[in-house]
Amino acid sequence: QEVTLRLHHFLPAISNVHRHFIQPWVQKVQAESQNRIRIQIFPAMQLGGAPPQLYDQARDGVADIVWTLPGNTPGRFPSIEVFELPFVAHRRAAVNVRAVQALYERRMRGEFADTHIITAWGHDAGVIHARREVKRMEDLQGLKLRFPTRQTGEALRALGAAPVGMPVPQIPEALSQGVIDGAVVPWEVVPSIRLHEMVKNHTEIAGSPTLYIATFVLAMNKAKYDGLPADLRAVIDANSGEAAARMAAKPWDEEGPKVEEMVRKRGNQILELSEEERNRWQRQTTPVVEAWLAGMKERNIDGGALLEEARALVTQFGQGVS
Amino acid sequence: MSEGAERGPVATAVRALALAGGAVLLATALLTCFSVGRRWATSQPVQGDFELVSLGSGLAVLGFLAHGTLRRTNILVDSFTTWLPRPVVAVIDAGWMLVWAAVALVLAWRLGIGAAETLRSGTTTMVLGLPTWWAVGLGACGFAMVALAALHATGRLLRGEEG
Amino acid sequence: MAPEFLQAALGFAALLGLIALRCPVGLAMLLVGTGGYVTIVDAATLLNYLKTTPYFLFASYTLSVIPLFILMGALAERGGLARDLFAAAAALFGHKPGGMAMGVVGACACFGAVCGSSVATTATFGRAALPELRRYGYDAGLSTGTVAVGGTLGILIPPSVILVVYAISTEQNIAKLFMAALVPGLLATGFYILAIWLLARWWPALMPAAPRLAAAAVRGAMLNVIPVMLIAVVVVGGIYGGVFTPTESAAIGCIATAAVGMLRGTLGLPALRDALLATAETTAMIFVILLGAEVFNAFLALTSAPELLAQWISEQDYPPYGVLALLLFAYIVLGAVMDELAMILLTLPIFFPVVTALDFGLGGTEETAIWFGILVLIVVGIGLTAPPIGLNVFVVSSLAKDVPIARTYRGVLPFLATDLVRLLLCVAFPALSLWLVRLLG
Ligand code: NA
Ligand code: NA
């Protein structure tokens, strides 16, 4: 028996994640199934709809597999937001992918119960890319920064910035028109939107835990998964969970530094936040964490336990990783 | 194109909906001007202005659709049917209008389900945290009005009141 | 034929068939897209896909610029700004042979800087200028033809709804496309005026000169257009100068236009109401087509035909300009027989990857994409006036019911000749489109 699956996602085919995670993962699954599983990739929302609809497309079978951000639909997957809180995640994707996947397995299956999650993961340390230098908290005052997910927006607001929410493809236009002064995204995204040509300053947050990351899931339609013959399901399973998460770290941990090198060679200024300044930022953003905890309490979820566990996992997997 | 003086409850309701949509669009424009002014003066734009603009223009468009249907502003090509007698053309147009009514009903039904699911999942917008379900629900109402307008227009075409 | 292409080809054939049977274009795309989707996947999946798609499609920030530009145009028209523009142009040039017609073109170009839609521009000047042209004894076909062609300046001069749609479906920068359109748009204006000048010399009987106005009247007419010129400068200058996003410019333009109309007492509540209803009609028309294209394009992606075709063409090693000529020719043929918005929405998924994979010796794929966008815009302009199906000609005809449509088409022909020259110039000299982008970008 042969099956063809449609994989749908929101980035163009030239993007790092498409080339360095989605494609290799698809090729591996196809090869290990002796080509009995065929996966057609539809990048750039080719199958229609908008990015916030991707998760439902997997749930409803509009696509068989989707790559999406839980943060695209704020409020819907509250638990996974724990990794998006300020100063929780590690600076390396290799650590975050394992931590997110482990916590997903322990505590979040319920929230994603209407799909089959192949893997859940998070990227590496996000970087502040801005027109002006950001060395201290005061430099953020009034800076209009595009933010990726809701919790990061709250954190930036707490630090004095003016967070502006918009989809990634809007960033170049908004920057050239002064609607924003910069954006916070990981290095990996920079070349695809030519961010390095529009801003000159890039601020990295030293050490771990880092200011923020965003989380992702690779979600599969449940009926499609359950309907696979046992041996093909085993192929998917062998490329799920931590195994897939480790593959997912590549675009960020391997391509990210290449981008950083390219940007440095171009003559842009790459700043690093001092340890002392980082601690100030962490203190300043604690109300964001507290607000999230209060919000979780309203939903009858023990946010405190989640947070503790997330931090423990990051520490555990982060042993010996700089 | 818009000297629509049709009377009757359907035409009035459809026009009122379109005007409401227009008012929302004007309000969206005003908000954007205000946000630009604030950004220029204080470097702090109105929080969530992007979201409000998307929402406002989306709702405006949904309010406009029924009016466009009733005024039959859809683009169609009549070069291949010019030789047909007018009553025949009216019947063909009525047929497509009926199909459009059916399509709009299906879309209203699907958006209604979409709204219910969005309510259940508790999805909100990113910056302001506004719930999304009611806007999707208004979309369902918009398409229900389209269906009503299309049925109304079908009747008028079949009665030969339009050509 | 590979099954992928067969499915796609059948889809296009069904679409053209439905359109020939008077099925509205947006509905036709929706129906064929639905049929194709159900054939390849199934009905239940399609129904799921439709649950939130219309909402998220309409409530998008990038698309919000379309209703706003349409509203600005409607407010400018109902507020009498278009009439003022034409009055000023007629006061300046009306006494010269062909001067009234040149005035229409000039006023259309200025109006084009505050209106993004060709249909709206055509309808506006059909009402504001056509009766005047006829009153001064201009030939009927030439009058309607001039208004139909002048109306295309609504999209050829930025802002332009067609360019916004192109930018969105190809993920290009709207502001840069607007910059690229400026010189070709002014070129179009110049060519149209030149065509009228030549016609007036060869056949003076077509367009008798109007009496010269008193100097005071000319001055009054000129003063009247200062507000609309200021608005145009703010809207277009704001986008070019990197001060506003296109959506912000449109919003500012709407409010400024409304304010001018109200201050001058030309935009009372009844006129405002009319402007909103006119906006509703045009916007509904466009968004129904966008919805149809969304479903049709999902079907097209499911067939994989676009991707395979682009891959196949790039493997053939055809000369880039040969492929470009072929695509533009296809656009001219398609544009003659179908709606232009639908045309670009349907073809871009196939044509765009093909074009950007070719090397025209420009600075990267972004420049190729922008340049191609301007070429597409020119062919769209041609399609809007070319027989047998030219939307602008239809709009003029609905306003001048006494002029047979064939006469309008004849009136359009000399202008179409200049369109082809302009297309060739823009193909041969990409710098015409790109120099402003390179300067400001
Ligand atoms: Na324009
Ligand atoms: Na045409």
TrEMBL record, chain B:
It holds the Pfam family DctQ. It is a multi-pass membrane protein. Keywords: Cell inner membrane, Cell membrane, Membrane, Transmembrane, Transmembrane helix, Transport. Its main location: membrane. It is found in: Cell inner membrane; Cell membrane. InterPro entries: DctQ. Residues 29-159 form the Tripartite ATP-independent periplasmic transporters DctQ component domain. The chain crosses the membrane at residues 12-32, 52-70, 91-112, 132-151. It comes from the Bacteria. Coiled coil: none annotated. The keyword Lipid biosynthesis does not apply. The complex comprises the extracytoplasmic solute receptor protein and the two transmembrane proteins. Belongs to the TRAP transporter small permease family. Part of the tripartite ATP-independent periplasmic (TRAP) transport system. This is TRAP transporter small permease protein.
From TrEMBL, chain C:
The complex comprises the extracytoplasmic solute receptor protein and the two transmembrane proteins. It holds the Pfam family DctM. Keywords: Cell inner membrane, Cell membrane, Membrane, Transmembrane, Transmembrane helix, Transport. The keyword Cell membrane applies. The chain crosses the membrane at residues 30-50, 55-76, 100-126, 147-168, 174-200, 221-244, 284-306, 318-337, 344-363, 369-400, 412-437. The keyword ATP-binding does not apply. Part of the tripartite ATP-independent periplasmic (TRAP) transport system. This is TRAP transporter large permease protein. It comes from Belnapia mucosa. It is found in: Cell inner membrane.
